[in-house]
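Fig. S4 source data, part A: sequence.
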Amino acid sequence: INTEYMGTLLCFDSHCIARGVGAMWQPAVFDPVLIIAQLVAQQCLFYMVLGALLWLACQLVSEPMSLALLLDYRRLEPDSPAGFLSCAAFFAAAGIVGAALLFTVARAKKCLDFAASLYILHFVCCWIAYGIPAAISWWIVVIISAIGMAVIGEYFCLREEMRDIPRTRTSISI
């Protein structure tokens, strides 16, 4: 780890991120290990946040917590209090994980890709566990959540990318 005056430059093999001054630099090389690590981190964070929010929802409606709440498309029907809270938990998790894209992806142009990948992997998990989602409400919640996650992630990443890089004055004594 190298430290510079204008911020911290973190280097891992061929990947560097400058933090602390609004600059986030990443090389244009294809790094599949980094991409897979970012996808795994996003997916784990998504399921941890969603699981915690669904646990809170279960406590409110006195329903037992189960894996079906995460993966069963039939549980995402807003016609009951538990279903409504499940939908709200999905939207809140999308917002929280969207904000976390600033730390895991750190680039506005990659937010849509990572949000879409997260929900495609979630679809595959749901398909494996309970079959292809047939409820229209599941599709609506997932599509709105994916769009919201991408927009929130892009907003925070753009704010960080657009921050001014401070210039320092150097005085030369003659």
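Fig. S4 source data, part B ends here. The two ends are 35 Å apart (CA to CA).
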